[in-house]
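Below sits our specimen:

——
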Amino acid sequence: MANEHILKEVKDGVATVTLNRPEKLNAFSGTMAADLYASFAEYDKDDDVRVI
């Protein structure tokens, strides 16, 4: 699922999830929470990811 407010990158076994909502001064939203949870679930299934 693509979301412009959650940026994801995996490098050398490290998954970096960046919350990116500068137009709202990075205020956290319910949609961002759902996307963050989905990212954790996605990376939990990926054996190449060692840390988030």
